[in-house]
Amino acid sequence: MSGALFWAPRAWIDSRWADAVLLRAGDDGLWAEIQPGTSAPAQAEVLAGPVLPGLVDAHSHAFQRAFAGLSERRESAQDDFWSWRERMYRVALCITPEQLRAVATQLYAELLRGGYTQVCEFHYLQHDIDGQPYADPLRLSWALADAAADAGIGLTMLPVLYQRAGFAQPALREDQRRFATDAAAVLALQRGLAASGRSLLKAGVAIHSLRAAAPPSMRQLAEALGEVPIHIHVAEQTAEVDDCLRATGLRPIEWLARHAGLDARWQLVHATHSTREEIDAVARCGAGVVICPSTEGNLGDGLADLPGWLQAGVPMAIGSDSHVTRAWPEELRWLEYGQRLLQRQRNVSAAPADGEPSTAARLFGRALQAGGTAAGFRHWGLSVGARADLLVIDTQDAALLGIPAARLLDALVFSSPGQPFRDVMVAGRWALRDHQSTSVGDTAARFADAMHALWNAV
Questions:
Q1: How far are the Cα atoms of 260, 279, 379, 384 from residue 2, in angstroms, in the given order?
Q2: What is the rounded distance in angstroms from the CA atom of residue 287 to the CA atom of residue 370?
Q3: Do 36 and 75 meet the contact criterion of CB atoms below 8 Å apart?
Q4: Angle at the Cα of 206 (from 114 to 172), degrees rounded to 5?
Q5: Labelling 147: which of 19, 201, 279, 317 has CA 20 to 30 A away?
């Protein structure tokens, strides 16, 4: 048999720990064999700790990594999402393709260290700084694809439909000039990316939001696509909900459920402000949600109805969005902590009556399953036919020392933040070994140079 053999003392398979697991990655970068209860053959590489599947970061704006930590002062009477957005646009208006690649390479290397092996890039920066199209419309997309290849992470590119500034504003504002697209342009971008032949690159589409896209364009886009992911920001802010009600008579998720033809391709990003009826409607059509706890907390968006989404069985992925946090254990931690603060209870997300007493395991399992779908994969995780990704846990990390094996995932999510992933594999190749990136180059130096140039310009 061809392919590389690995042996793990423990591995997370079918939502539980299995012992003595043999894993074979095929030459195609997919898992060809996974066999628990197997002694380590002489030709297998013995992994240095227990193994988890990698997670998908299902919502990313890579250029916003250049803004992380730099909007945490208030100089006026009020600061909210909308004032944050005005400041963020300054970065969006001046970043160059070269700077974007440097920033994204740094980000993607950090995401690998944080346990992500695939990232969905909700990409609305399309044009040159003056708003004119590049000679190659995909120039900024290639910058991101090159960054992902440099870091060694998988990438799902989602070019964004972005047509107007609001329900009552039929055109974009001047400071949104780099975002302008219509349905035909987005389809051309998606098809160009899909035809590239890059090994770790997939392509779907995104719709920025109901306020930013005309319904006929949304329908045109959805009807022209096959089984590729369609992502959309929805109901992140109460002001957005109010605007949608005034313009359409319906709440945003309600409008999508009635008029967008939602199906399993659709991923509703944030979905922070929902009703029980909206959750049930999403569940009936098979769409998923993508919750971004650290960004939603940073921006003051509010708390999603996590118990409602879980109870309804809606697929629920996670994303790091603006990248104030770049590790999935912290996203899951704050996903749960928000509910604990709201309800003044503990282990809100656990479901002992359903045989899921571990909060961390239940949230991890949902994010694992839904993330693969959000990124455009039919199979994801430690299973035959899925891409050969894995995370090797460093049990010598301070947060994990002495933790009983059965509680390892609980401690990984809810003990002190650390560096729990020793090695990271993507498509059968090591992207991280002994906490060090296997990619070559001066990633940190190029990132620092890009940040210096950007902030001089801003």
A1: 46, 46, 21, 15
A2: 10
A3: no
A4: 115
A5: 317
Residue 178 is encoded by which pair of tokens?
């780099």
Say what the pTM is: 0.98
**Domain spanning 55-374, CATH class:** alpha beta
Q: One-letter amino acid identity for 392?
A: V
* Radius of gyration of the CA atoms of the chain, in A: 21
Domain boundaries, the chain: 4-52+384-437, 55-374
Q: Which residues are identified as catalytic?
A: 270, 321
- Per the CB < 8 A criterion, the answer to whether 53 and 389 are in contact is yes
The CATH code of the domain at 4-52+384-437 is 2.30.40.10
**What is the 3-state composition of the chain as percent helix, strand, coil, each rounded to the nearest 5?**
40, 20, 40
317-341 pLDDT per residue, tens: 999 999 999 999 999 999 999 999 9
Give how far Cα 348 sits from Cα of 303, 330, 340, 345, 442, Å: 14, 16, 6, 6, 43
CB 47 within 8 A of CB 7: yes
Burial class (CB in 10 A: 0-12, 13-18, 19+), 378: exposed
The pLDDT of residue 320: 98
Nearest to 330 by CA among 236, 419, 270: 419
